[in-house]
Amino acid sequence: MTSTQLxxxxxxxxxxxxxxxxxxRVAGMLQGKRRSSRLGSxxxxxxxxxxxxxxxxxxxxxxxxxxxxxxxxxxxxDEQELMVSLYVDCSASMDFGGTEAEKGNRSGRxxxxxxxxxxxxxxxxxxxxxxxxxxxxxxxxxxxxxGRLPILRGRGAANRLFQFxxxxxxxxxxxxxxxxxEPGAIPRLSGMTWIFSDFWLNEGTAEIGSILSRLAGxxxxxxxxxxxxxxxxxxxLSGDLRLIDSELNTxxxxxxxxxxxxxxxxxxxxxxxxxRKTASERGISWVTLSSDMTLQEAVFGVFxxxxxxxx
Length: 311
Description:
Layout: H1 9-15, E1 19-20, E2 31-50, H2 62-68, E3 72-80, E4 83-89, H3 114-131, E5 135-141, E6 145-153, H4 158-167, H5 176-180, E7 191-197, H6 205-217, E8 220-228, H7 230-233, E9 239-244, E10 251-256, H8 258-280, E11 285-290, H9 295-305, E12 309-310
Helix pairs in contact: 3-4, 6-8
């Protein structure tokens, strides 16, 4: 498989110039391009401190000594890599859109399958991180962790990430709380966690808030990316229909009217508002994307505009 199956080559060239907008200073094991809270051996000057016997004489600042007569050594920032964890919701509800019925949406553009779009978004963020010498781990989940990729580092590992994302199938009922409740599901090292999902969940906001608090407590800077299809945002249905739950395979007879559609839009707005509030109370970022957006619009528009990506 080639990387361009998930990301076009022209986009990858642009992604190589970006970095993640994490506000964290992290202490890792390998040297990367992100400043940690520790002092070390990079080339970025941090501060002076008084010389003590045993200090590296190469850091002795003779210029300061000649001006003040006092011995000082130079200290430098320790640049460490960020741990980036990518979680992609592969439950059955994500396998929606990208059909002929979606091509007449309000944007006038063909909408992509939600799961494929989420995988492309995760691949974009992962590639930015790998090109910045960050460490990247990837997970696919439904109501459990269906697959996990060992930690990767370096641009040369990008195809392994793309292959993993490309190969993961959809299916099953989605439950973020159940999946992240499994042993070892939450990253052990502090870092940045991205979750890509439609967030059509049976859990209440209290249960979602609990798992988000666990992530934040584990030192994670969390980004929630809700991916919806245009048909879910602005459904254009009418008449007597039987609606099927793609995860539970249960159905319900519904008479679709303009009033019903208006009530749906109000409930969707309320649900998103509650999730956004739950995230905001924990210092967690939340963005909603439509699957008829291009990757360029999502990355260079939404992510860069909210500071999640630095151009």
